[in-house]
Amino acid sequence: MGLVAFIMAYALFAFIFYILQVIAYWKIFTKAGEEGWKSIIPIYNGYVQYRLTWDVQYFWVALGLAVGGGILNSFGGIVGVIGSLALLGTALMNVVALYKLACAYGHGIGFTIGLFFLNPLFMLILGFGDSEYMGPQE
Prior knowledge:
Distance between the termini: 53 Å
InterPro entries: DUF5684
Order of helices and strands: HHHHHH
Number of domains: 1
Structural class: mainly alpha
Keywords: Membrane, Transmembrane, Transmembrane helix
Mean pLDDT: 95
Shape: globular
Protein name: DoxX family protein
Strand content: under 5%
Radius of gyration: 17 Å
Organism: Clostridium segne
Low-confidence stretches: none
Transmembrane segments: 6-29, 50-72, 78-99, 111-129
């Protein structure tokens, strides 16, 4: 019975986390002049975020690294190591994407650290706070 309760609690937590992310992205997108419904579609919302804050070419690179790294990582051995390196590259690109997101709304490295460690909270702050969309920053 304990395992079932744990799985149910985990599923509830995951659902709440997803709903908070959708709400936050909805507000972030509408601040940038995008339609909020784009936050509901999982991969497409990442594409829109990259388009608003960085460059979509990097989105495709990150997606390719994630998919390719996941596939290669499943083989193990030296191929698995290459897959792990690709996944590490994806993680680094995601950190840069968080920095670009923070900069696009007038924040800096401190806010990026908050986005990294407390993502749902800081995404809600971006969406509901008085941060204004300033476009992609260099």
